[in-house]
Amino acid sequence: MKLFSRTLATAGLAALAGLGAISVAAQAQAQAQDYPTRAITMIVPFAAGGPTDVIARIVTGHMAQTLGQSIIIENVVGAGGTTATTRAARAANDGYTLITGHMGTHAASVPLYPKLAYHPEKDFEPVALLAGTPILILARKDFAPKDLKEFITYVKANTAKLNAAHAGIGSVSHVSCELLNSVLDIKPTGVPFNGTGPAMNALVGGQVDYMCDQIVNAVPQINGGTIKSYAIATPERNPSLPDLPTTAEAGLPAFQAQAWNAIFAPKGTSPAIVAKLNAAAVKALDDENVRKRLLELGSVIPKPAERTPEALAALVKSEIAKWTPVLKQASN
Ligand code: ASP
């Protein structure tokens, strides 16, 4: 009898636990259905006005209309974007804190920070790729070399007195110039900023010599004649800067670099919320005005097959695998 009642009690508890699990699942489903019921915070891991910030603002401006809630950009700077990314990894996984990460925060930082407090693959749910961003070799307006060939000769002869601006260790501007410097076998002094927005101001002001930056940050300055541009590090020229030669055309085919920016949510964010966010991002990328603004700045808009969370997960994996040996070799 005793055994029977104990079994019954255990069964009862199991049933209650089962009901509990069902109600938690039902609650999560209901939350996902109503989502979003309040403003969403989008962390941008660099200063306002830089490429990641600009892309995030263009796309989330449209996503907010689709989702019916505002998306507030919060610029959290430091450590090449890894401070902000750590914060995003530890945020509540309820869909109300997201991050616009990039090739630096979600790939290149892995080999560069042995004590990185997050892992791009294990601590995030990929949401959507927003834009590919070719890398340009840029310099202050009065930098002596006229073209890329002269640039190569000049920087090799003057490496000890050169200053190269970047957005912190592991940022796109840092790792792409590491690659350039390793191809050219030069070691300039790196000057870190909280983003390439402020780094660009220093380049325009002539306080630093050169920089490798994402096209989005450079088109207005190049067109305004406030900086020099030597080449674009992609196989093709970019329609937003049709006169700018590729590195291959200009004599440095070994330097190829294109970055990317994408939305991530903390690990464990419900698949239904991720799907809603992805659909809103995809809708933004199909919007005529969003496309126009992204294309004017030289971004490469992802093709439909590249816009899924699965495609972004695969990109992160392949980029970590690609950058790890390159950066280990470049920093030797
Ligand atoms: N994303 C840029 C970089 O990694 C910085 C920025 O957006 O300001 O260099």
Question: Can you tell me about this structure?
Answer:
There is one protein chain. The protein has twelve helices and nine strands. It is α/β, with parallel strands linked by helices. Strands 1, 2, 3, 4, 5, 6, 7, 8 and 9 form a nine-stranded mixed sheet that branches. Helix 6 links the parallel strand 5 and strand 6. The longest helix is centred in the first third of the chain and has 33 residues, at 2-34. The relative contact order is 0.18. Aspartic acid binds at residues 46-47, 50-53, 102, 104, 167, 171-173, 195-197. Aspartic acid is lined by residues 46-47, 50-53, 102, 104, 167, 171-173, 195-197.
Key descriptive features of the protein:
single chain; about 325 residues; alpha/beta; globular; binds aspartic acid
Q: Note the beta-strand portion.
A: 15-25%
Question: What value does the average pLDDT take?
Answer: 93
Instruction: Name the helicity range.
Output: 40-55%
**How many individual β-strands?**
9
The major β-sheet equals: 9 strands, mixed
Radius of gyration equals 23 Å
Which spans have pLDDT < 50 for at least 5 consecutive residues? Answer: 1-10
